[in-house]
Specification:
Layout (H helix, E strand, L loop, with lengths): L4 H12 L2 E2 H8 L3 H13 L3 E6 L8 E6 L1 H4 L7 H15 L1 H23 L5 H14 L4 E5 L5 E5 L5 H6 L2 H14 L1 E7 L8 E7 L1
Antiparallel strand pairs: 1-3, 2-3, 4-5, 5-7, 6-7
Helix pairs in contact: 2-3, 5-6, 6-9
Length: 207
């Protein structure tokens, strides 16, 4: 099904980060002025906002368009409010150990499922590519590539369990350990949504 211009812009800003109007126009196949008009309408709806960037030299400042919190809410949130409430209730009623048990059980199930899906991928690059595909299917809007230094990157532009991770950082630690185990590699988180980054990014190198 063909995406509306609004949805295409939301996805572009989510996956590629803040953009100039001209770049949005190029991505949509429209003029920069048409893109600015569309962005202005979206700003009135609270979906995006412009941030001025000083020009190089004597030119006028540029405007980079960012997603707002309202714009981000157009992406799956994994039933954020309910999840956060349930986690708080578990800790209050059963104690921190019960939550640790829930996280461990989720980690074990996820690890086995990922291993089964990646079993036929013989090398690290293929496993990272496969993991990105799995994570995208789960709502993380993931991508992967190889850097010039030979390391591999796994990037997740969205976190559908962000409320859960905010309520309990154990989910983030658990996912990092799952990646290390299923990839049989060194995995370092270089960007983290919970620390204010627009995405989570992982640098992966052989052991």
């Amino acid at each position: 099904m063909r995406q509306s211009p609004v949805n295409r812009i939301l996805i572009l800003l989510k996956t590629e980060g803040p953009q100039l109007a001209a770049a949005v126009g190029d991505a949509l196949g429209i003029s920069g002025e048409a893109a600015r008009q569309q962005l202005a309408k979206m700003a009135e709806e609270g979906l995006v906002e412009p941030v001025s960037v000083p020009a190089r030299g004597r030119g006028r400042p540029s405007q980079l368009w960012h997603l707002t919190a309202e714009g981000n809410r157009h992406f799956p949130d994994g039933h954020a409010e309910l999840t956060a409430t349930l986690l708080t209730t578990v800790v209050q009623q059963l104690g921190p150990a019960a939550l640790d048990a829930v996280i461990t059980a989720r980690e074990n199930e996820t690890l086995q499922r990922y291993r089964d899906e990646l079993a036929d991928r013989p090398d690290l690059a293929a496993r990272v590519e496969g993991l990105a595909a799995i994570r995208s299917r789960e709502g993380y809007m993931a991508d992967s590539w190889q850097e010039d230094d030979g390391s591999l990157m796994l990037v997740e532009n969205h976190c559908p369990i962000c409320a859960a991770a905010t309520a309990c950082a154990g989910f983030c630690r658990s996912e990092l350990e799952t990646f290390r185990s299923v990839l049989s590699a060194e995995v370092e988180r270089s960007e983290h949504i919970l620390l204010g980054a627009r995405r989570c990014a992982y640098r992966i190198t052989p052991r």
